[in-house]
Amino acid sequence: MNDNQIREVDNYYLSNQEPNKSCLLALRSIILSQDTSITETQKWGMPCFCYKKKMFCFLWTDAKTDEPYILMVEGRHLVHPELEAGKRTRMKVFRVNPNNDLPEKTIESILQKALDLYRTGIVKLKQ
Predict the structure, then answer these.
(1) What is the CATH number of domain 3-119?
(2) H-helix or E-strand containing 33?
(3) Under a CB-based contact definition with an 8 Å cutoff, are residues 27 and 68 in contact?
(4) How far apart, in Å, are the Cα atoms of 59 and each of 27, 75, 92, 121?
(5) Which residues contact 24 (CB under 8 A, 6 or more apart)?
(6) Distance CA 4, CA 94 (A)
(7) b (16+ CB within 10 A) / e for 50-88
(8) Helix (H) or strand (E) run with residue 50 in it
(9) Distance, CA of 51 to CA of 57 (rounded, Å)
(10) Backbone φ and ψ of 93, nearest 5°
């Protein structure tokens, strides 16, 4: 990752207004703290988190509600009452209310279940 990518991704967070800015930065920190093999880049204008170079999740804000969410790339393999598939066949989202305390335990649980998909080989990693 070069310095321009880092600044670009940082600009995504900085361009958001409060309370979304703080919420997204906290989510970023939670995601990155789950495993030392998680890296951050930017794809399609949004922060993308990869596990061993395989896309794992994204951070974004809902166009209608303007609330942040975590987009789980392999959501179809995840079962959790707070994950929504909507019209998506592969991905699911976890919505976050930026005005409330983050449900850290729930977020960490979902992230760990998603990481286990990669760790156990359910989702194949690039060699």
Answers:
(1) 3.90.1150.200
(2) none
(3) yes
(4) 8, 14, 12, 24
(5) 13, 16, 47, 59, 61, 68
(6) 29
(7) bbeeeebbbbbbeeeeeebbbbbbbbeebeeeebeeeee
(8) strand 46-51
(9) 9
(10) -120, 150
- Please state the domain extents for the chain: 3-119
Report the pLDDT value the prediction gives residue 127, as an integer from 0 to 100. 56
32: which DSSP letter? H
> Measured in Å, how far apart are the chain's first and last C-alpha atoms?
19
What one-letter code names the amino acid at 86? G
- Token look-up 């800015």 returns 21
- The tens-digit pLDDT sequence of the chain (127 residues) is 455 555 678 888 988 999 999 999 999 999 999 999 999 999 988 999 999 999 999 999 999 999 999 999 999 999 999 999 988 899 999 999 999 999 999 999 999 999 999 999 888 876 5
Tokens of 72: 């789980």
